[in-house]
Amino acid sequence: MEVIHIERIESVIVDLPTIRPHHLSMAVMRNQAMVIVRLFCSDGIEGIGESTTIGGLSYGDESPEGMKLTLDTYIAPLLQGKSALSINAIMALLEYNIKGNNFVKSAIETALLDAQGKRLGVSVATLLGGAVTQTLPVLWTLASGDTQKDIEEAQALLNDGRHNTFKLKIGRYDWKHDVRHVSAIKQAVGPDVKVTVDVNQAWTESVAKQGIAQLQEDGVDLIEQPIIKTNFDGLARLTQYFKVPIMADEAAATVTDAFKLAKIGGGSVFALKISKAGGLINIQKQAAIAQAAGISLYGGTMLEGTVGTVASAQVFSTLHLDWGTELFGPLLLTEDIVKGRLTYQNGVMEIPQGPGLGIELDMNQVEKFKRK
């Protein structure tokens, strides 16, 4: 019997416009650049995946241009002719031959899972053991940087029923200014609406103690990655010092990170992201570590487009996420590259139920937004 093999892998960078600038502590995003991976198999089945990062190299050590270079120069030749059926074997081969580059590895694993799901007529979630839900709670990030604009945006979304939890990106300004900004929004939306804060590593430990103390007093519900990701011990000290939950995001990147943090109590919540973990299967490993240590889970995003968002949703649907998700990336886009946009309503996202990822690229749109 002929073994189904990988015939070729293609990658393209697409630049999609966004509804507004998105302010992070280290950068301002004015559009979203994503690397789309197409994996073609000898049985005629195509799998798709996505590598997306935020803020270029100001956020991490992978950029869209670098990811495409790695895919085209190193990964595509390495995987050509290999069996498309053993995803574990392919990922082990990548791990041995390609150091780091977790964002790219996640896209390859996604494409392999998508192809295998299509081949067998089942969803990616089914391949991963089965979904426990067909919808996921999704918060909305208020990141205009303007307090009044953020309040108006939050109230409009609450009235519309689309979201009932909000996250604020802070860290670009003096901590006192940022805390006043957050507290004003929390007061405006009221005690029944959850408000979380992402500092994106911007504070020192001493500043974090002052800032978190005030945020805790003002009723903010969750503090995400207040200090530099490498300061595991500092994260543990903050977790033990405050009642408000502290979430490890950039610090809890890999399975190894999750183990080290769980061991010292660095964070009472872990943010799971398929890109930083190097794939969906690693997310389940991280989740197992967290659950064994009594650490809650949250479904994070790198502001992926629809392909990466659905890949995340497929694995998140197999887990119990105490803090829901922030899979709102596609809602930031004014246009998309897939046929049929995702449904968001009543504070949740509906997960596509078809084979594989359950979505299909619109090649006319891919061509329109492809970086020339």
TrEMBL record:
Its cofactor is Mn(2+). InterPro entries: Chloromuconate_cycloisomerase (IPR013370), Enolase-like_C_sf (IPR036849), Enolase-like_N (IPR029017), Enolase_C-like (IPR029065), Mandel_Rmase/mucon_lact_enz_CS (IPR018110), Mandelate_racemase_C (IPR013342), Mandelate_racemase_N_dom (IPR013341). GO terms for biological process: amino acid catabolic process; peptide metabolic process. Pathway: Aromatic compound metabolism. Keywords: Aromatic hydrocarbons catabolism, Isomerase, Manganese, Metal-binding. Residues 147-245 form the Mandelate racemase/muconate lactonizing enzyme C-terminal domain. GO terms for molecular function: chloromuconate cycloisomerase activity; manganese ion binding; muconate cycloisomerase activity; racemase and epimerase activity. NCBIfam families: mucon_cyclo (TIGR02534). Belongs to the mandelate racemase/muconate lactonizing enzyme family. This is Muconate cycloisomerase.
